[in-house]
Every structure is written in structure tokens, then in C-alpha cells.
């Protein structure tokens, strides 16, 4: 994987992490109701959930690419179509002005609970698994060595953890909490 491919992977991961959804709602809820530490623990838990899925996705793809000769082309086409579908849905929902009116409830959560909720919101979301398979199908080569796989998994997990910890940090700062 060269720097250009890695940059593309990292940019896609940043955009994926930044897209609003249930993960963002959980991180914000835990941060606002439990403080900065709880939010950071939720972000770390979410990042580890994503990293776990990444390991499973990349390991499975490499195994399939080595055993099924035409799987690489099929995976790339299906993965591309899925990413296009997700992008189209995001654009359409943005144009339509769909908004979530869910209210954040005040609660007391521990660091462990914040971590586990962050992990579980990532781990129990099947769209994340499909998204990672679609994403990796564009970058994984059948002859990918362990180092290349490690770079990809670390990029995905690192970007996700960094983003949600940044969200927790910003959401726990005085001005933003008052605005919410």
C-alpha cells in the first residue's frame, strides 16, 4: 500500500467516522450525562469495536482472495456499489433535511459502562461490518502481507478512536454543552 492509497483509506475513514448516526448519539449522550472521562471511554470502546470488525473483515477478505480466484473483482464491484449506495443515501437525507429529534436523557454512567456502550454500538451494528468489507475490498490485495493489513486496521481503528475522542472532548467543553 503506497501513501496515496493509504491517504484515500484514511480520508474515507474520516468521512465515515464523521457521518452522524447512532454511534455519535451514544458518544454525545455519554459525554453530556457522564462527563469527559465517560465520553472518552465511549470513544475508546467504539474505536476498539471498529478495530475488532476491521481485523475480522480484512482477515476474511485476504483468505477469500487467496482461495477464490475471481473473488477480488466480485468484491470490488459489490463493495463499490455499496459505497455508492451509502453515499447516495447520505446526500439524499442531507437534501431532504431529515433531522433526529431524539432527546438526550441525563444519567450516571461509569467508565466501564461508557466503554462497553461505545464498544457495543460499534460491534452490534451490522452496517459497520458491511461497510468495512466494502471499504477493504477496494484496498486489500490477495498478496497483502501482515504489515499492510496491520496498517489498514490501525488506520481504521485510529481514525475512529481519534474522532470520537475529539467529539467527547469538544462536547465536554463548557460552551458546547451549554449550546446543546
Structure, explained:
- This protein is an all-alpha fold.
- The chain has one domain.
- It is built from 8 helices and no strands.
- It has helices at 3-18, 22-34, 36-67, 71-96, 111-123, 126-136, 146-171, 174-179.
- Helix 2 (22-34) runs antiparallel to helix 5 (111-123) and helix 3 packs parallel to helix 5.
- The chain is elongated, with a radius of gyration of 17 Å.
- It starts with a helix and ends with a helix.
Short description:
The protein has one domain (24-96, 108-179).
Helix-strand category:
mainly alpha
Strand content: under 5%
> What is the straight-line distance between the termini?
42 Å
Rg from Cα: 17 Å
Topology:
Blueprint: H1 3-18, H2 22-34, H3 36-67, H4 71-96, H5 111-123, H6 126-136, H7 146-171, H8 174-179
Helix pairs in contact: 1-7, 2-3, 2-5, 2-7, 3-5, 3-6, 3-7, 4-6
Amino acid at each position: 500500500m503506497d501513501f496515496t492509497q493509504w491517504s484515500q483509506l484514511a480520508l474515507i475513514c474520516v468521512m465515515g467516522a464523521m457521518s452522524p448516526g447512532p454511534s455519535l448519539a451514544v458518544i454525545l449522550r455519554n459525554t453530556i450525562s457522564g462527563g469527559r472521562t465517560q465520553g472518552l471511554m465511549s470513544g475508546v470502546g467504539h474505536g476498539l469495536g471498529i478495530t475488532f470488525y476491521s481485523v475480522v473483515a480484512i482477515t476474511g477478505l485476504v483468505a477469500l482472495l487467496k482461495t477464490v480466484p475471481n473473488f477480488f473483482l466480485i468484491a470490488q464491484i459489490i463493495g463499490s456499489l455499496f459505497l455508492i449506495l451509502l453515499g447516495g443515501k447520505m446526500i439524499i437525507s442531507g437534501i431532504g433535511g431529515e433531522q433526529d429529534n431524539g432527546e438526550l436523557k441525563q444519567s450516571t454512567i461509569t467508565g466501564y459502562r461508557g466503554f462497553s456502550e461505545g464498544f457495543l454500538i460499534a460491534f452490534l451494528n451490522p452496517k459497520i461490518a458491511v461497510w468495512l468489507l466494502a471499504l477493504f475490498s477496494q484496498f486489500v490485495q490477495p498478496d497483502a502481507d501482515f504489515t499492510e493489513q496491520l496498517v489498514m486496521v490501525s488506520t481504521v481503528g485510529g481514525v475512529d478512536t481519534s474522532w470520537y475522542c475529539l467529539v467527547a472532548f469538544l462536547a465536554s467543553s463548557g460552551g458546547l454543552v451549554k449550546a446543546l
